[in-house]
Design brief:
single chain, about 230 residues, mainly alpha, about 45% helix, disordered N terminus
Length: about 230
Amino acid sequence: KSILLALSLGGATAFTRTPVRMAAETSMVKNGWKYDQNKFVGGLPGAIAPLGEFDPLEICYPEEMSESDVKRLREAEVMHGRVAMMAFVGYIMGEAVTPLTGKSFIMPTPVTGPANSHLAQIIAEQPLAFIVFVLAIGFAEIRRAQIGWVSPDEALFTLRDDYYPGDIGFDPLGIRPDTPEAFALEQTRELSNGRLAMIAVAGLCVQELVRPVQILENLGIQREVIG
């Protein structure tokens, strides 16, 4: 119950600035990174040309925040980027692949039209599938909280000292870099793709709201949906 409470409040507080913590904090080295309050976002990778140290809203102030607060902001960025990358693929593939046409046990009810309307169709026609979907997301989020977050019984909205933002240990293909330099480079690439995906998915969503046709069709690419 305490974990669910932390999850429900964590998203809303991820981008809030918290008061300066006066107690001294001892930073640990994580994946070759050590927190430095004098550097941009505490020295975490992600400052990419041509924008460089881009923070126009002045959300992250390492001098006025604890290490956990800075890591919490990066955790939010990384996780939103990952969701956006999957969502982008879902927008394009979800409007065309066979499982959404009613010819697969995965989704026996036909799901058609713009991706913006797919979830509503699934809820209406296959509520059990939607419940399974929600439970799967809940399980993943609870597991992530157990790995990276301090129990809310000890402290609220606090990441573990030895936790690197986004590093939940999921690497089924074994592609995790072995050196700190390679890890920082790979993290920068992930952030770059995640940031682009967040902008792209927002654009796809708005496009389908303005003109409710499928994305590729809106681009003039004619294709037949398998029926």
